[in-house]
What we know:
Blueprint: H1 9-16, H2 19-31, E1 35-38, H3 40-43, E2 54-61, H4 65-76, E3 79-84, E4 89-96, E5 99-107, H5 113-118, E6 128-130, H6 131-136, H7 140-143, H8 150-156, E7 158-159, H9 166-169, H10 172-184, E8 187-188, H11 190-199, H12 208-220, H13 225-234, H14 236-240, H15 260-276, H16 284-295, E9 297-299, E10 302-303, H17 304-314, H18 319-322, E11 324-326, E12 329-331, H19 335-349, H20 354-365, H21 369-373, H22 380-390, H23 394-406, H24 411-414, H25 422-437, H26 439-442, H27 448-455, H28 461-475, H29 482-495
Amino acid sequence: MTEFIAPKAGKLKQLSNDPVLRKVALVSLELGVNVYLIGGTLRDLFVKTRRNKRIEFDFAVENNTFQLAETVARELCAYSFVLNQVKAVIRIVCRDNDLSYECDFAGFRACSLKEDIYLRDFTINTLCVNVRDLISKQNFESSLLDYFGAVTDIKKRLVRVTCETNFFDDPLRMLRGFRFCADLDFVLESNTFLLIKENFWRLRLAASERVCAELVKILTNPDCFRCIVEMDNSGILSCILPEIDLLRNVSQGKYHHLDIWQHSLDALLKLEYLITNLAQNIPDQYAKRVNAYLNEEIVYGRPRIWILKLAVILHDIGKPAVKFEINGAVHFYTHEKVGANIAQSIGKRLKLSIKEIIVLKSVVLYHLRAGQIVNRKPGKRAKFRFFRDTKENALLVLLLSLADRRAMLGPAAMDESYVFLEQEIFVMIVEFFNLQDKPEAMARLINGTDVMNFLNIQPGVIVGTILSQVAEAQALGQVSTKAEAKKLVLALYTQK
């Protein structure tokens, strides 16, 4: 008999009292249909996980799948839609107070429950229980079905594939395996890792949207570095981002101790450490605001942090294309511009949203800017131009700059003559939020219509140029009223 690890009591009670599960159990009893809760929900009873306001339930239904799911949806006032008519898979989506639910009901894919479970992805996701037994709260331990050693693998913290053909049926499962490792702090079982290494190329058969969705989940994890390294070692990361292969074994000269690719990985490691330990460098209230900012969603379910980490991985992607040497010195002029365009192409290939692509491209494009202005104590003008150009992505650029610099340990970068005032970056992080808190300080004294009226001119490039110069003068405290701004406009136009 499989060794049993006692589930966490609080989670079990919470699960048995869940209103959606109780409704499913009631409907299954009324219709006389066996319904089994299966997968991650039960796995998470035994491991420490973060509470999520988005709950996902997977159910295996013995028969009459559509009738049962639609009855549940009707009684919960939920939305329902068919995912796969042939395989009898239907999803219902609903809300209960501040919780959102996504429930998938699937008919048996084999002749028995055990055979159906065997077709699942990993052993840790094969635990199942009849929903009626779960809700009854009686002898949960004996009701839990563990056909394939799920509890044992959970105890060993192993992600093990249930059968070797699983990756053929759905290649995306290989990427999901790494995602479970990142989420649960597990490791891939050795034979499972070898299977992925032999079959990673199959991931090209999966839809880009699905691949991207898994990559988002991996990079959103606060400690994904180890997972990314393992993905790299397996070959699957190059399958997703083939451009990174051009970074391997490309030396960077005296400022770096690593080649471009290893430097990019090290920058990711440094970023994660930096974010975890922000309160060591800035006041605690600002460290909390940084984390809140990073967790804000750019699009539904996809926070800024994942784009920042992708930008860190890709920030030097343009270097191989522009590398040249003069008298033994290595140069990569304009690599940020070339890299921004490559990052944009990668974003399009992975089917990122337009907003995500814009953010990714901007962060890669400006990743050198902060470092360039802290080689001495930056003045107001330099800071104004930085925040003006990077806009709402300024904080992402600042964090990338810190991680990039901390991953530079070549002899020239460690020499006393090389100046990078790291503390000034932290000062600018605080200033980023202070600017957000005082929008009136950045409110324009005049607009384009004012400029055209002052000068009696038609719309054109010169209007935008003058507005930009007035805004800079305002930020530097050189003008503070509309009258002063008008006087400056006339002076600037006279100089044109």
